[in-house]
Task: structure prediction
Amino acid sequence: MTARQLATGTIVGAATLSATGYLMFWIALGDFYAYALRSGAATGVPRESPLVWAVALGALSYGALLTLAIGNRTGSPAIGAGIKVGAVVGFLVWFTADFMLFGISNVLSLTSTLIDPLLEVVPSAVAGGAIAVVLRNVR
Result:
């Protein structure tokens, strides 16, 4: 994988994750997540306004991880393979993060800890497909 492919995949992945994440987690499932963040013992957890720079850095890191996972496979990345890799990586990342947070903090309930990794499969699969498309087209 070239540096140009890594950069392009990272940016496309971050943009796709941000867009699908916004649609899923703020628009479609906002009430569930608002409840989930208030159902643990912790109070005042959600920020009044999110730190956009921190969210952007997280999305770039996540996009880079997906790009590396998809781009380091042998052969030209197919869209279907990108979707599968994106879904698996997304599930494993969020399963890890959610259970670690559940184990060390009062931020998440067990219900949200179990459901979140399953829901996160959708944005990461979409991003995986988008990354596969751009990796095939960027040389």
